Amino acid sequence: MNKCAQILESINIGIVIIDKDFCITEWNNWMTVYSNKTCEDVRGKSIFDVYPELDKKSFSRGCKAVFTFGNLVFLSSTLHKYLFPFKIQGSNSTFFTHMQQSCYLIPIRNDDDEVDHVMINVHDETENAVLDKQLKELTYIDGLTRAYNRRAFERRLQEEFARHKRTGIPLGIIMFDLDFFKIVNDTYGHQFGDKVLQNVVSACSDCLRTEDFLARYGGEEFVCLLTDQNIDQTRLVAERLRERIEQMTIEEGASSVSVTISAGIADSANCDNRVTLLKMADEGLYAAKRKGRNRVEESDK
Q1: Annotation says 283 is catalytic
Q2: Does the pLDDT of residue 43 top 70, yes or no?
């Protein structure tokens, strides 16, 4: 084995070399380890036959730039996630199903200085992606309930209200908190109170669409953003949440505890800015409390 071949086989990144027909000419040991395909298995075959799940349009466009202009092309793990679908084993599989990869498409020139092959360098970025995801969770996820936190909500509200102003698509909001939650904490302890909050978030998740946004606003107060929902639709969702939480029971020893919520609702129809939208929902929440709790109200101002 010559020196170049030894380097190719020992280097700790994936290396694949393809010709202008996208046929594989080289496939190093790193690729074999993660793909369970040897060089003999894939040599001479189209890379799209070996991996039909490749993003053919994006990959072909990148390779065309390399062959035509001799450019180096970078495929970011942030944008593309991965090029080759290698399954992850171990603890990182709780974050991603596939290895997160950044890839370089590098021109290889012949004796006439023409690009006749592309070398694909595959870098495992999974550890970095996991750290980035954990950092984002610390920034935007409430550690107790796993709902989004207030910072995440404020960012999302800004984005969604800007979208509403741009497109006219309505935006609904529900602000609610647990009735007499202090009594629950004082009677059963804060650990049980934490369990109640977690159950409330779980119940809400059962009632909301994937595009809806639930955040813990603070303490026992929560807020939901509902895209493409007017005030009547927002009320229906809020009532569904209220009923679902009222029916929920949390066990504590021989006791079975139930909780209720008071909710304020608003939509973007009469709001010039996101601050007003949030203020109207908050006023609705206080109206619900004044009128006896365990109910849904709009601002009466």
Answers
A1: no
A2: yes
